[in-house]
Specification:
Length: 192
């Protein structure tokens, strides 16, 4: 995929590069990432992982308009023939830096705009570890539909967890997710 920058009102999504290895590895080791697959065991492995990402993926750093990196998100498994992909690897690594800023919601809005409006795909899908109740609640609020479970699919935090399967269609994005995200971003604007 071409290297692109997605620009929002509060955040931009810029391509993830090897220079982000230490930062993104640190985020992945944090308590906030405890319900994600751990990934690389070292900064060097993280750099190799970033360098080895296939051209068929979009991997982004979420950065504030000031240029400060605060998180990461990806779009993988893009299937143009069948019209679907998987957004994922979503992590806000600098929670204090985004307090009071709708960074997470705008990052997802930019991803959804890429997927549905620019790429013209019809469906997004993904799985969330069943213990990750906040992410499950967040995705449901955004309009994702629970489509099933893969029982004991993940071994995270020393125990097996189900993979809760979610999906959203293009029309659900436009009818539910987009208005909700737009309202949350508007609420994050300073009042004058």
């Amino acid at each position: 995929m071409p290297q692109i920058i997605l620009q929002g009102e509060f955040v931009d999504l810029v391509p993830l590069t090897v220079e982000h290895a230490a930062l993104s590895w640190g985020w992945r080791q944090s308590e906030r990432a405890a319900l994600l697959n751990r990934g690389a065991a070292s900064i060097e492995q993280q750099a190799a992982w970033i360098a080895g990402r296939p051209a068929s993926e979009y991997n982004f750093i979420i950065q504030l308009k000031s240029g400060r990196p605060v998180g990461m998100v990806s779009v993988t498994g893009i299937d143009s023939q069948h019209g679907h992909c998987e957004p994922g690897r979503f992590l806000i690594g600098e929670e204090e830096a985004v307090r009071g800023i709708p960074a997470a919601v705008e990052a997802m809005k930019l991803v959804y705009e890429l997927v549905f409006d620019r790429l013209g795909l019809q469906r997004i899908f993904g799985t969330i570890a069943s213990d990750n109740t906040l992410m499950i609640k967040w995705q449901k609020f955004l309009g994702m539909k629970e489509e099933g479970r893969l029982r004991r699919h993940y071994f995270i935090n020393s125990h097996h967890q189900d993979a809760v399967m979610f999906g959203m269609l293009a029309e659900e994005y436009r009818q539910t997710a987009l208005p909700r995200m737009t309202a949350l971003i508007k609420a994050g604007r300073p009042s004058h």
